[in-house]
Amino acid sequence: MDIKLIKELREKTGAGMANCKEALIETNGDIEKAIEYLRKKGAATAAKRAEKVTKEGAVKIAVSNDKKSAAIIELNCETDFVSKGEKFQKLSEKISEICLKYKINDVDTLLKAKDENNLTVKDNIDDLIASVGEKVELRRVKFVEISDGFVSSYLHFGSKLGGLVVVRGQYTEEAYNLGKQISMQVVAMNPMSINRDGIPSEILEKEKEIYKTVAKGENKPEHIIEKIVENKLEKFYQENCLLEQEFINEENTTVGDLIKRFEKESGNKFEVTEIVRFQLGM
């Protein structure tokens, strides 16, 4: 059986190579009859497409004109080829703007929201599916806002990573730019929380248990183990708390140090109240 014919059938139906080969053998190489054969067998149904893995896609961000609110969304598809296409990129941007406009914080509500043509987000996604022939799904969304501050954002080149930083304080161009730098920090270093208070107690207990187990396995004296655990926990905080992380653009300076310096020089308050990070597929 011609491998090119098998590949052509696979591209048209999404069925596996073995199923396509079987179908073509049964139909003497007739593509149209092979498609019908596969449909009857259930190997090329819409249900099959629904099981496809959507590991590619885009992360998009929309920020309000007054910088007091923002939305971030993740739209997924099956292949990198489709995700880079103009139709997919435009739709993902459009969805982020609809999310911002209606202040939506969950996928189901956003799927029902309508655009300027009175079509829902789901309608738009269905149209794209029909156009590109791939499963496309809205994976997650997040809307943030603050009345006494602003939202800074950073979208990494390629739209695979994005971050939002919500700041309580006076909006100035300098403050907004600092927020953007911290958004880049969030994207690059993936902090678990803003400060120590945000680390779940169960995670801390798990880390402590790991440190103790390792120390005991190395036959460390009992009176030293607690000190070892304490030191390693400090390192854990420095790596996972935004304010304690070393700033990516300045050695020996933490994000917290950077903020304190800004507040001292500007006389303005700068308090990070929320961070959001979307990484494609994570």
Description:
The protein has 282 residues and is α+β, with helices and mostly antiparallel strands. Among the domains are: 3-50, Helicase, Ruva Protein, domain 3 (Orthogonal Bundle), CATH 1.10.8.10; 53-145, Tetrahydropterin Synthase, Chain A (2-Layer Sandwich), CATH 3.30.479; 200-240, GTP Cyclohydrolase I, Chain A, domain 1 (Orthogonal Bundle). Helix content is 50%, strand content 18%. The chain has helices at 3-13, 17-26, 31-41, 46-50, 80-83, 86-102, 107-112, 121-132, 173-189, 201-217, 222-240, 255-266, and strands at residues 56-63, 69-77, 137-145, 149-155, 161-168, 271-279. The strands form two sheets. It has a three-stranded antiparallel beta sheet. Strands 4-5-6 form a three-stranded antiparallel beta sheet, with helices on one face. It starts with a helix and ends with a strand.
